Amino acid sequence: MFGDSCNNNAHPRCRFCYVQGPTGPTGPTGPAGGPTGTTGPTGPTGATGVTGPTGATGATGATGATGTTGATPSLAIGTVTTGAPGSSATASITGTAPNFILSLSIPQGPTGPTGVSGPTGVSGATGPTGATGATGATGVSGPTGASGATGPTGASGVTGPTGPTGVSGPTGVSGPTGASGVTGPTGPTGATGPTGPTGPTGP
What is d(CA 87, CA 106) in angstroms, rounded to the nearest whole number? Predict the structure, then answer.
């Protein structure tokens, strides 16, 4: 290192040069000082620091010994009642372990709508005719009611077919024959007329 001044004031233009050596070892610690002073008052508690990250999950511990098997419970049905419509359903369990009794109260539901009428079922077989009961006694005849008004005359019915001809009655007694009249003279024979055409042959 070079410098323009020295510690000697008699040489204002003194120039020098030196090399810095390595740092020497630290010396031994000196003896402790005087007696320790009294502890000062405790300062106020500082603000809570930020919570550190959660540590890793520890290893699972060994499985504990299996406990003794408990008594099997016995559940019996007690009373089952129907509550009023709109009420709340209730359930209660009574008894002493392991014997329990379950009682229920179920509210009645509202009446559902009328369902659609199902198809008419097949007619069943006619049952046997029951025995005829004994004829009851004839009741007393009631009074004869008044005659109703005469209804209108109905239309004339269709004329029925002609009945068969009745048996002929007996022939009456012939009257006496009258006297024969006088025979008149025979007249002359007239000329023969022409022969007419032959008629068609009948069926």
Answer: 8
pLDDT digits (tens, 9 = 90+) for 150-192: 888 888 888 888 888 887 778 877 777 777 778 888 888 888 8
185 Ramachandran zone, left/alpha/beta (phi>0; psi -120 to 50): beta
Rounded Cα distance, 72 and 67, in Å = 15
Please, which residues bridge with residue 100 across strands? Answer: 75, 95
Share of the chain above pLDDT 90, in %: 21
Cα distances from 148 to residues 2, 136, 142, in angstroms, run: 170, 31, 17
Output 19-24 pairs: Cβ under 8 A, ≥24 positions apart: none
User: pTM above 0.70?
Assistant: no
86 phi-psi bin (left φ>0, alpha ψ -120 to 50, beta other)? left
Q: Which two tokens stand for residue 25?
A: 């070892």
